[in-house]
Amino acid sequence: MITYELCLLLRVMPKKELAATLKRTATAIFDKSGFIRKIENLGTRDMPYKTSSHGVVYNKASYFLIEMNVPPSTVEELKEEYSRDVDIIRRRVYKKIPPSEAECTLHEEMLPAPYRKDVQELIASSKKLQKPRFSYNSGLDYYPFQK
Amino acid sequence: MSLILRKCFQNVQISSLLKNTRVLMPVRNVGSEVSDADVPKFDMENPFLKEKQQCILCKHKIDPDYKNVKLLSQFQSPYTGRIYGRHITGLCKAKHEKLESEIVKSQSAGLMTVYLKEPCFIKDPKLFDAERPIRPHRF
Ligand SMILES: [Zn+2]
C-alpha cells in the first residue's frame, strides 16, 4: 500500500466555500475506494510565481496537504478530476518517502582520486577495453603479425 | 722444538674453535629473550586516523523534504535561483541527489521560487561559501 501526498493550491475564498471544496476533494478520494490519513492546512500566502488556471491569473493561494491511500491505478483519474475543478489552482501527487537510513559517504568521496572506489572501477573498466599486444620478450624472434 | 710448537698451535686452534662455538650459542639465546620482552605492544587503535567526515545533513540527521522550503532555499543561489553544485554545498552524493529532486518537486508544486531566492529567506544563515568551493569550479 502506497501512501500518497496530495499538495493542493486552492483559490482564496471564504471559509464556507473552502470547506465545501475540501469536502469535494475528499469525497473524490473516497469514491475511488481510497482513504485519507491526514489533512494539513499549510496556510494562505503569496505564490512564488503567478499561475493562470481556468482563465484566471492567481497570485495568492491557500495551501493544503492531504495524505491518502488510493489504488495506484486511480491516481491519474483523481488528478484529471481535480484538473476540472475551478477552485483548485494546482495539484501534485507525490509518493511519501520514508527517511533513508543510509550512512554518509562523504568521507570516501573526499579521498584522493586513485583511492575512490568509482575511479578504481573506471580504471579497471578502461583496462578491459585495451587490446592484447604482442610482447617482444616471448622468445619468438620475429613479429608474427602484419605491421 | 718444532714439533712442540706445532702441537702448541694445534691446541690453540682447537681451543679457539671450541671457545667460538661456546660463545656463539648463548649469544643467540640471549638475543631472542631480549626481543620478546622489549617489543612494545601496539594494541591501541591508529592514533593518526582522521575522524570520519560527515555532511551537514547527515550530521544533524535531516532528510530534505519538498515541504521544507526554508531548508531547500538555503541551497539555492540568491542571484539565479539555481541549486548549488555538490562541490559547493559539500553534501554526500545521496543527500545531494535527494535535495535536487525535492527542490524540483517543491518548485513544481508551487511551493518554491524558480528564478530567485525568496526575499524572506535571503538573510538566512549560510551553510557554505559559494566563493570557496571544496573542489574547483567547472568554469
Ligand atoms: Zn551525508
From TrEMBL, chain A:
The keyword Ribonucleoprotein applies. The keyword Manganese does not apply. GO terms for cellular component: ribosome. Keywords: Ribonucleoprotein, Ribosomal protein. Belongs to the bacterial ribosomal protein bS6 family. This is Small ribosomal subunit protein bS6m. It comes from Nicrophorus vespilloides (Boreal carrion beetle).
From TrEMBL, chain B:
PANTHER family: 30S RIBOSOMAL PROTEIN S18, SMALL RIBOSOMAL SUBUNIT PROTEIN BS18M. InterPro entries: Ribosomal_bS18 (IPR001648), Ribosomal_bS18_sf (IPR036870). It comes from Nicrophorus vespilloides (Boreal carrion beetle). Belongs to the bacterial ribosomal protein bS18 family. The gene is LOC108559125. It comes from the Eukaryota. The keyword Plastid does not apply. The keyword Ribosomal protein applies. Signal peptide: none annotated. Keywords: Ribonucleoprotein, Ribosomal protein. This is 28S ribosomal protein S18c, mitochondrial. GO terms for cellular component: ribosome.
